[in-house]
């Protein structure tokens, strides 16, 4: 079965979050519209530069970790939701210290207009 527009958008989203510094700008531009936004309980940023800086900061704080989808992408109209984990590369599913779910709104071209993120599991402070 081919990817639908929601799965394709979420795949680009994970590609951006897991990209290295050299590829990050291109991956963010492929995933988000220019004035796209990202909001969760710990961050609120907009535009490609703001999103790139957020992704870089998370990568610096959690080196060697990868964002991994959990379950299926559910979507309708221009909205999709999905769950994820941030875990060390190679770690078993469910062993992640950080997990959450996101709701995205898509633009007409299939890129992300906005992300509303929810954090379900965080490491102890």
From TrEMBL:
InterPro entries: NTF2-like_dom_sf, SnoaL-like. Residues 10-114 form the SnoaL-like domain. Gene3D superfamilies: 3.10.450.50. Keywords: Isomerase. GO terms for molecular function: isomerase activity. This is Ketosteroid isomerase-related protein.
């Amino acid at each position: 079965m081919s990817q639908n527009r929601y799965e394709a958008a979420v795949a680009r989203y994970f590609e951006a979050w897991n990209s290295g510094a050299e590829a990050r700008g291109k991956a963010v531009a492929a995933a988000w519209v220019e004035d796209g936004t990202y909001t969760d309980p710990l961050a609120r940023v907009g535009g490609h530069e703001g999103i790139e800086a957020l992704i870089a900061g998370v990568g610096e704080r959690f080196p060697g970790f990868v964002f991994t989808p959990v379950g299926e992408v559910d979507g309708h109209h221009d909205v999709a939701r999905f769950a994820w984990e941030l875990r060390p590369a190679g770690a078993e599913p469910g062993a992640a210290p950080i997990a959450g779910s996101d709701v995205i709104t898509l633009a007409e071209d299939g890129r992300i207009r906005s992300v509303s993120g929810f954090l379900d599991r965080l490491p102890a402070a």
